[in-house]
């Protein structure tokens, strides 16, 4: 059974803590992706599981057996790396079977395993070719084949698609999913590409500064990010953030406010918060009636438009705003339908979908609420004239 368990795993180098108190519980047969920015500790985490790096602290268990101090050969794992090192003067069959031959597997068993793996990977007709006669994608398949023939409990894959061109990478994503379905083996996969993580995994483990931020199914990370880091990292283009404060009547920043009763999401006024909204949850005010719970309109000026084919990204300038993102202090990104007649350099109003608003603590980044109610705490008392109308 290929379950993998990391308890308080830490890896310190001289002046850097690459992995910081990592706890992971990966079930047998699960496809878990470690994702995060470059240098966050993904590869080091994977290498500790592989036995290529010894952790400074913590324990690692594979298939119920503690392997913390065991060398890679005594862990039932197989690795696939970004740099595929195939033996140039061996044909595909010999490349795939090399690991089995040095372990003295019987010839007919080797042949059976290589042919089974080649069939799964649809490379049967390539078995006699040398690596120089293969495309990048074919070479990558051979590298995966070499891992499959070992019949490991766990596959460890470190950016295996990073060297492929964009189209092939997308194709190989679906191949890997198909492979996982067929083999039902645990896969722990490392990538810095959040789209790759979102599309393939049962769960993704988002890492930053060596620390696990959240481990959850992709859509949970997307819809209910545990903190501002996850919210900003998962999803492309990134979530918009606005810095502000909770008041008795909702969220207020220099640029705009959103009315709601903080107590309905268990919060008190006076707290400094970041409000997060994804580009697809920002709408032109003209579309407000399509939403169950739109916010009040916010005045903005459209800036640059980016037509993507299936949607248009619209950069919005928000007057007087410091929206908190250092790169674009007063910018908000909106995604609209491709047939929208929206124009650049125009004053418009936008609304947000309340159910898709996120609140984060301004200091810790911890998520405080996902979705805010339309009910306001202190409904303005209606004036005499309104009542008589
Ligand atoms: P990622 O895979 O997320 O890009 P790594 O796990 O490779 O990140 O690295 C995490 C951190 O540990 C980085 O700051 C990196 O420079 C550092 N690091 C990795 N390996 C070593 C090493 N052998 N010696 C010193 N520092 C290392």
- Beta fraction of the residues? 25-35%
Each distinct ligand:
adenosine-5'-diphosphate
Largest sheet: 6 strands, mixed
Instruction: Assign the CATH class of the largest domain.
Output: Alpha Beta
Please report the number of helical segments.
9
Strand order of the largest sheet: 6-7-8-3-9-10
Number of strands: 21
Structural class: alpha+beta
Report the CATH topology name of the largest domain: Rossmann fold
- Could you list the spans in which at least 5 consecutive residues all have pLDDT below 50? 378-389
Question: Mind telling me the CATH superfamily name of the largest domain?
Answer: P-loop containing nucleotide triphosphate hydrolases
H and E string: EEEHEEEHHHEHEHEEHHEEEEEEEEEEEH
The best one-word shape is: elongated
Overview of the molecule:
The chain is an alpha+beta fold and 389 residues long. It has 2 domains: 4-223, 3-Layer(aba) Sandwich (Rossmann fold), CATH 3.40.50.300; 238-388, no CATH class. 23% of the residues lie in helices and 31% in strands. The protein contains 9 helices and 21 strands. The strands form 4 sheets. A 6-stranded mixed β-sheet has the order 6-7-8-3-9-10, with helices on both faces. The structure holds adenosine-5'-diphosphate (ADP). Residues 13, 16, 18, 36, 38-44 line the site of adenosine-5'-diphosphate.
Features:
2 domains; 31% strand; alpha+beta; six-stranded antiparallel beta sheet; single chain; disordered C terminus; 23% helix; 389 residues; 9 helices; Rossmann fold; six-stranded mixed beta sheet; binds adenosine-5'-diphosphate
């Amino acid at each position: 059974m290929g379950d993998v368990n990391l308890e308080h795993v830490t890896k310190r180098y001289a002046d850097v803590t690459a992995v910081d108190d990592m706890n992971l519980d990966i079930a047998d047969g699960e496809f878990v992706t470690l994702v995060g920015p470059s240098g966050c500790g993904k590869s080091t985490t994977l290498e500790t599981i592989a036995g290529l790096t010894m952790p400074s602290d913590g324990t690692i268990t594979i298939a119920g057996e503690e392997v913390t101090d065991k060398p890679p050969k005594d862990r039932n794992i197989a690795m696939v790396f970004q740099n595929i090192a195939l033996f140039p003067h061996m044909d595909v069959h010999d490349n795939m079977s090399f690991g089995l031959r040095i372990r003295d597997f019987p010839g007919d068993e080797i042949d059976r395993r290589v042919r089974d793996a080649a069939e799964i990977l649809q490379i049967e007709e390539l078995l006699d070719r040398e690596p120089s006669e293969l495309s990048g994608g074919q070479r990558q398949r051979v590298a995966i084949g070499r891992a499959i023939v070992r019949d490991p409990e766990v596959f460890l894959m470190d950016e295996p698609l990073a060297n492929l061109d964009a189209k092939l990478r997308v194709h190989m994503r679906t191949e890997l999913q198909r492979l996982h379905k067929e083999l039902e083996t645990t896969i722990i996969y490392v990538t810095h590409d959040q789209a790759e993580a979102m599309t393939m995994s049962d769960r993704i483990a988002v890492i930053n500064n060596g620390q696990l931020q959240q481990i959850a199914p992709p859509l949970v990370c997307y819809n209910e990010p545990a903190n501002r880091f996850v919210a900003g990292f998962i999803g492309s283009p990134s979530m918009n953030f606005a810095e502000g404060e909770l008041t008795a009547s909702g969220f207020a920043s220099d640029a705009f406010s959103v009315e709601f009763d903080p107590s309905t999401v268990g919060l008190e006024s006076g707290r400094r918060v970041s409000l997060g909204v994804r580009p697809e949850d920002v709408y032109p005010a003209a579309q407000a009636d399509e939403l169950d719970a739109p916010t009040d309109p916010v005045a903005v000026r459209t800036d640059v438009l980016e037509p993507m084919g299936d949607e248009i990204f619209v950069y919005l300038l928000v007057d007087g705003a410091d929206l908190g993102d250092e790169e674009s202090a007063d910018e908000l990104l909106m995604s609209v339908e491709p047939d929208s007649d929206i124009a650049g350099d125009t004053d418009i109003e936008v609304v947000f979908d309340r159910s898709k608003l996120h609140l984060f603590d301004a200091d810790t980044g911890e998520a405080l609420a996902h979705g805010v109610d339309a009910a306001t705490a202190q409904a303005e008392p209606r004036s005499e004239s309104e009542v008589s109308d």
